[in-house]
């Protein structure tokens, strides 16, 4: 081998080159290079748009002022609310529920022409105030609500406008399918789903946690009662009215209507009078319906029997005189039976005097009439109890004046008097039939039976004959009172009330009706007392309610029923000893 061969290739020898690429290989290489360039370009553009998007989010949500500080924390304003549980009636019908909704907001700094935008937007949403809308769209802010709770149609129309700076926020909204019908019971929430009134407020924490609640209210009864009450208010030109229906054996409130009422979607438009729940907040002197308690107390004490007689002449107390109503006896001696049947004031005073002031205080307290009702609503009024509770106070309380209570207190106490003697706390919750009903014995079963029979007499031949419903054996008591005003009473303004039980031989339901400032009309012979207005209303409600609740009418001459409603001869069995308070 030569020296050149040993040292490598000779310098003058030709070098070996790479083989030439074929056409197909060149095309493949070009495609691969192009693909790489596209991927790189796409990545660059994606990063760029991501940066722009993040900046827009920052501007829309946190908008910075000129000095760099955060002007508006819009994120907190549009954060979705948690699901709020439903309220349902005793049959499962929805009274309050939460559904998806959408709201409209704006970033005024992105609105190019606030004047044009406000004009176009007000045509689509005519309920918005145009001046306020223009001010909002011109504001030096980055976030402003324009309208909460749009309908799908409204959202579509706003979207069609294509106005820069407007956007939608998905939210939830509270809906009340029954509207005004249950407004005082259910109440309402604010725009942020916080309970403001009614059970929405009273159960706010429970509903916020997602726990649905079954109420004792029967929506069927509620609608029927409201219609009957409204018709009666119109007929007697009354200024207001209310009705309360309770299950006598459980304390469940089946219907609670107060008129005027309000639209729960727009409570700010309602008057104070419409927002006022007369059944729970209204505190009234009940007039002669209080004689139920006075008579029960007198019979329990043993100081009076049904046959005991008292003089019915006027009673002088200082410069005042207690008389009977002009249609009642004004003189002579009448039995306790007649005093109750004909609703005599003076006889009631004598029955109280025989029993004594201490017994009266204790008896009314035992029935829960001296402290606020333990109801689930936040709107519960406190009774007006005389201080000092003097002998004169006791005299007027015996016939329903000088002490004021709420309708729910009255109904709860009457239920205890007629249901066998057990005071059940009133409730707006549906009770579990498998669980025992809470209650306290407040009087004897024998005394309760006597009071049922006496109330039946009032419907048959007393002041509540216009409440009679054939086959339902209605028992009742009526009351009329002037409204208390500073320094006395307004003789031209008053309340009339009726409390009825049915069937009287085994009461299932208590019905109370009340009217304010009812007027005498043709056919009432100049009278505007409860027997002419509140009692007929009670009878109409019972007549319609009975079939709805499955109460079967009975033969009015059924001997077994008549025997149950027969009044005892002599002192009422049991007396005060058996009526002592005991827990059941």
Layout of helices and strands, plus pairs?
Layout: H1 3-7, H2 23-62, H3 74-78, E1 87-88, E2 94-106, H4 114-124, H5 130-137, E3 144-150, H6 152-161, E4 166-175, H7 183-186, E5 188-189, E6 195-197, H8 198-202, H9 204-208, E7 213-214, H10 219-235, E8 240-247, E9 253-259, H11 272-275, H12 291-301, E10 309-311, E11 315-317, E12 320-322, E13 333-335, H13 336-341, H14 345-355, H15 357-366, H16 391-397, H17 407-418, E14 422-423, E15 440-441, H18 445-461, E16 475-485, E17 488-502, E18 509-516, H19 534-548, H20 559-564, H21 575-578, E19 582-583
Parallel strand pairs: 1-7
Antiparallel strand pairs: 1-2, 2-3, 2-4, 5-6, 8-9, 8-18, 10-13, 11-12, 14-15, 15-19, 16-17, 17-18
Give an overview of the whole structure.
It is a single chain. The chain is an alpha+beta fold and 584 residues long. It has two domains: 86-109 and 143-186, Alpha-Beta Complex (Penicillin-binding protein 2a (Domain 2)); 224-583, Beta-lactamase. 36% of the residues lie in helices and 18% in strands. Helix 10 packs antiparallel against helix 19.
| Count of domain modules | 2
Q: How widely separated are the two ends?
A: 128 Å
Mean pLDDT over the full residue set: 86
Largest sheet: 5 strands, mixed
CATH level-four homologous superfamily name of the largest domain: DD-peptidase/beta-lactamase superfamily
Secondary-structure-based class equals alpha+beta
Beta content = 15-25%
Relevant terms:
single chain, 584 residues, alpha+beta, Penicillin-binding protein 2a (Domain 2), Beta-lactamase, 2 domains, five-stranded mixed β-sheet, five-stranded antiparallel β-sheet, 21 helices, 36% helix, elongated, disordered C terminus
């Amino acid at each position: 081998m030569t020296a050149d061969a040993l040292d490598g290739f000779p310098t003058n020898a030709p070098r070996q080159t790479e083989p030439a690429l074929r056409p197909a290989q060149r095309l493949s290489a070009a495609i691969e290079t192009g693909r790489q360039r596209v991927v790189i370009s796409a990545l660059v553009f994606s990063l760029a748009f991501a940066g722009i998007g993040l900046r827009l989010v920052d501007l829309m949500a946190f908008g910075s002022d000129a000095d760099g500080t955060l002007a508006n924390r819009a994120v907190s304003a549009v954060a979705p609310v948690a699901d709020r549980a439903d309220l349902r009636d005793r049959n499962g019908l929805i009274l309050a529920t939460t559904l998806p909704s959408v709201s409209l907001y704006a970033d005024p700094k992105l609105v190019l022409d606030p004047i044009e935008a406000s004009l176009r937007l007000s045509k689509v949403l005519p309920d918005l105030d145009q001046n306020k809308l223009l001010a909002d769209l011109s504001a030096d802010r980055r976030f402003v609500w324009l309208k909460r709770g749009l309908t799908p149609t409204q959202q579509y129309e706003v979207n069609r406008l294509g106005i820069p700076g407007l956007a939608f926020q998905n939210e939830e909204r509270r809906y009340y399918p029954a509207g005004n019908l249950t407004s005082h019971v259910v109440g309402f929430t604010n725009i942020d789903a916080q309970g403001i009134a009614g059970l929405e407020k009273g159960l706010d924490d429970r509903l916020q946690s997602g726990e649905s609640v079954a109420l004792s209210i029967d929506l069927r009864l509620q609608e029927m009662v409201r219609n009957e009450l409204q018709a009666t208010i119109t007929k007697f030109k009354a200024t207001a009215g209310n009705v309360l229906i309770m299950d006598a054996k459980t304390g469940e409130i089946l219907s609670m209507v107060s008129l005027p009422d309000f639209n729960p979607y727009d409570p700010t438009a309602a008057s104070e009078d419409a927002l006022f729940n007369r059944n729970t907040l209204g505190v009234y002197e009940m007039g002669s319906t209080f004689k139920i308690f006075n008579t029960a107390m007198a019979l329990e004490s043993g100081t009076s029997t049904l046959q005991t007689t008292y003089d019915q002449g006027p009673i002088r107390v200082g410069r005042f005189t207690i008389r009977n109503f002009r249609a009642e006896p004004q003189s002579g001696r009448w039995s306790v039976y007649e005093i109750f049947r004909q609703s005599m004031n003076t006889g009631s005073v004598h029955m109280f005097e025989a029993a004594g002031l201490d017994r009266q205080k204790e008896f009314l307290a035992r029935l829960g009439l001296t402290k606020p009702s333990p109801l689930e609503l936040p709107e519960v009024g406190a009774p007006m109890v005389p201080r000092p509770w003097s002998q004169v106070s006791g005299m007027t309380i015996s016939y329903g004046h000088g002490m004021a209570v709420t309708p729910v207190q009255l109904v709860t106490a009457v239920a205890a008097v007629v249901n066998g003697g057990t005071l059940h706390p009133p409730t707006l919750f549906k009770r579990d039939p498998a669980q025992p009903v809470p209650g306290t014995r407040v009087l004897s079963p024998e005394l309760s039976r006597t009071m049922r029979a006496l109330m039946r007499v009032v419907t048959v031949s007393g002041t509540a004959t216009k409440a009679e419903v054939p086959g339902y054996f209605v028992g009742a008591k009526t009351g009329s009172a002037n409204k208390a005003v500073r320094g006395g009473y307004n003789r031209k303004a008053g309340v009339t009330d009726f409390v009825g039980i049915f069937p009287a031989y085994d009461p299932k339901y208590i019905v109370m009706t009340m009217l304010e400032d009812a007027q005498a009309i043709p056919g009432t012979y100049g009278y505007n007392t409860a027997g002419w207005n509140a009692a007929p209303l009670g009878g109409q409600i019972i007549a319609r309610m009975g079939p709805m609740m499955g109460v079967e009418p009975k033969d009015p001459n059924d001997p077994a029923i008549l025997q149950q409603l027969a009044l005892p001869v002599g002192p009422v069995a049991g007396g005060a000893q058996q009526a002592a308070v005991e827990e059941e």
